[in-house]
Amino acid sequence: MSDRVEAVKKLFTSKSSRVETNKGDTYYQDLFEKCEARLNEMRAQTPANKLDFTDLLEENGIDRREFMKWASATTAMLMLPPMFTPLVADAAVMMNRAPVIWLELQDCAGNSEALLRADGPKIDEIVLDIISLEFHETLQAASGHQAEKQLEEAMEHFKGKYLLFVEGAIPMGMDGQYGTIGIKGETFHDHLVRCAENAAAVIAVGSCATFGGIPAAAPNPTGAVGVMDVIKNKPLINIPACPANPANMVGVILHYVLTGQVPELDSLLRPKFAFGYRIHDNCERRAHFDAGEYVEEWGDTGAQNNFCLYKMGCKGPMTFNNCSIVRYNEAVNWPIGVGRGCIGCSEPDFWDKYAYERPMADAKIKAPTGGVEKTVDEFGLGMLTAAGIGIAIHAAASAVAGKRENSGESHE
Amino acid sequence: MERSYKQVKRMTPAMRIIHWVNAICMIGAIATGLYIGHPYYQTLIADGAVDKYVMAWNRYGHFIIAIIFDVTSVIIAYLYFFSRFEKPYKKLIPNAQNISEFKAVLINLLTLNRKKEFDSSHADSFNTVYFTIFHILLIWMLLTGLQMYVHGLGSGISSIGAWWPWMLHLVTDWTIPVTGGTLMDVRIAHHITMWLIVCWVVFHIYYQIWRTIFWKEGDISIVISGTKFVKE
Fold first, then answer.
1. B86, B122 in Cβ contact below 8 A?
2. Is residue A128 domain-shared with residue A106, that is, in the same domain?
3. Which pLDDT tens digit goes with each residue over A182-211?
4. For labelling, which of A107, A254, A302, A381 has a CA lying 20 to 30 Å from the CA of A218?
5. Per DSSP, what are the bridge partners of residue A373?
């Protein structure tokens, strides 16, 4: 009950998705000094690993100029004024002082893949390479007892300081027995709660960890939920999308390293710097939408001419994400750029409610009762037909009854 | 037997104007709304995308109609309580008189006009409840529609100031959790409510024609002349 009261309160007090891009000179001057002090403090600390960022850049053939270009782009993405660029560059170098524990729950490891399988490591990926990844089930060499020990040690050593990244949903059905981990058969739920206890902040990465994603799609056999449904008393940041954009992960970590705070979040706990934009409003095919020029089927003349994909089920008009601006794989491309619609992967329940690849009006949607699957228009026409039949019966009956009444009137 | 009829006033000119404005808006809103939901005709204009705004015009028309509906809704809400002619809210109070009148009118409809045990010279409780359902559906359409509209103001600014998206968020954000938790649910709800309104309209037209034929009081004239005739 108190949960519900809270939810209602939140409903009327939550800030809109408004992105405040200019908070005034005094604010930024203040923040600048804070960030500088914080970075100096970090510089004094010994790095948690021996990876050196500048060396890594050099090894990968990225020169200083390219790095500074990246730093200023990232500063802009974080909605900070240009004077923060040197600080962002410094923070990137000091990423090896940010301890991260990465949990892998019910998912396909797509977010880890997004980090690792880039065609050539670009700056975003290198930044994520040098973070002090203390524990990552998929990547680490250790296994079994050794892995458990490593996790224990990391949690003890960086108590209250580490960032907990979570990838994957949490199965709640059957007491969580759908997903267990480690030699003790700890359920994903207990594992997450234990690791979150001493974390500085929890960062849910990808649609599964944020909103349950594909594991939570109907009929949700494992009772999958997102991290925000389990962890309530910690600073929590959601970075949805399938997979989450490494640029946004870097943005959140950088923001944390730089300021020691979580970035400004919207009502779904997504950082506003990344999810304050509607895909539709920054889409390169928007002109075709307004003009009414749509791809009617795959490969038609419209498709060859980059027409709008709305009729092929593009969900850009109801999806908030920055992928139409920052794109994927270091701005190489993104779904609409390759000629297929957006499936709304950064929104809750996206698999059931967005990803059916046709306009909502044509999509078969489950009735709340679960059984029938009809399009909204079929359902509506069904209601209209029922009303029409009712009216026809009533009209016919009235006509017959009316005649009887007329013949009876003479008796009055 | 000769029967004499007396003419009774049922709708003021303002009410009739609002009725027809709403009726025309409804047709426009459905035509443009169905296009927005699923563009059902292609743009047969040999011009570049920058010159033809087929979807944009449909959306513009839909918004303008929504604004007209906003205005008539505010006027109707006012008239419900402060009309100098008839105050419809009085027929909505569930007191014994209204409940029995509601039942009597419903029985009249179900018994195919065999029983008619109520005074049909003034607006009855049944019809007032039915109209109120329509106004509630319309308010629901306005709220869900404005919620979808404010998605386009993600920057939090608008040409008339930041207060506008702020106000829309404040007033309509609750429709997201109420419809199911996602922005898509608001769209589905908006679309389904359109069909509910179409069903409402179909029965409304049928019922007014049915009354005109069987009551023999010229009810259909109310919305044109503002008057009907009842037996003396």
1. yes
2. yes
3. 888 899 999 999 999 999 999 999 999 999
4. A381
5. A366
CATH of the domain at A353: 4.10.480.10
Pairing of strands A224-225, A186-187: unpaired
Q: Are residues A247 and A144 in the same domain?
A: yes
* Residue ranges with strand state E in A218-361: 224-225, 236-239
Does A164 fall in a domain? Answer: yes
Amino acid at B162: A
Both A247 and A288 in one domain: the answer is no
Q: A121-130, A149-158, A170-179, A215-224: which has the minimum mean pLDDT?
A: A121-130
The CATH number linked to A46 is: 3.40.50.700
Rounded to whole angstroms, what are the CA distances from A340 to A180, A242, A291? 37, 15, 19
Same domain membership, residue A169 and residue A231: yes
Q: Catalogue all structural domains in chain B, each as residue range(s) with its CATH number.
A: 5-90+119-231 (1.20.950.20)
Closest CA to A168 of A142, A145, A195, A150: A195
Distance (Å, rounded) from C-alpha B150 to C-alpha B155? Answer: 10
A381 vs B203: CB contact, 8 Å cut-off? Answer: no
* Dihedral sign (CA A380, A382, A388, A391): negative
Contact B151/A317, CB-based, under 8 Å? Answer: yes
Residue A317 near residue B55 (C-beta atoms within 8 A) = no
Which candidate, A53, A60, A77, places its Cα nearest to that of A122? A60
Q: In terms of domains, do A243 and A294 share one?
A: no
* Range of the structural domain that residue A356 is part of: 279-362
pLDDT given at position A50? 72
- Residue in chain B lying closest to A321 (CA): B154
Per-residue pLDDT for B191 more than 90? yes
Cβ–Cβ below 8 Å for B214 and A398: yes
A109 within some domain: yes
Structural domain includes residue A46:
yes
Assigned domain for A166 exists: yes
Residues of chain B in contact with residue A296, where contact means CB-CB under 8 angstroms, are 42
Q: Which pLDDT score, from 0 to 100, does residue B65 have?
A: 95
> Does the model's pTM come out above 0.80?
yes
- Do the Cβ atoms of B217 and B211 come closer than 8 Å? yes
Spatial contact of A243 and A276, defined as CB atoms under 8 Å apart: no
Instruction: Locate the chain B residue with the closest alpha carbon to A280.
Output: B152
CA A295 – CA A339 distance, rounded (Å): 10
Q: Which two tokens stand for residue A245?
A: 């954009």
Q: State whether A239 and A294 are in the same domain.
A: no
Domain count, chain A: 3
Chain A residues lying within 8 Å of B39, measured CB to CB: 292, 294, 310-311
| C-alpha closest to that of A283 among A355, A335, A350 | A335
List Cα–Cα distances, B32 to A47, A310, B38, B71, B174, in angstroms: 61, 16, 10, 19, 26
pLDDT in tens, B163-177: 888 899 889 989 998
Say whether both A269 and A125 belong to one domain.
yes
Q: Do A397 and A348 share a structural domain?
A: no
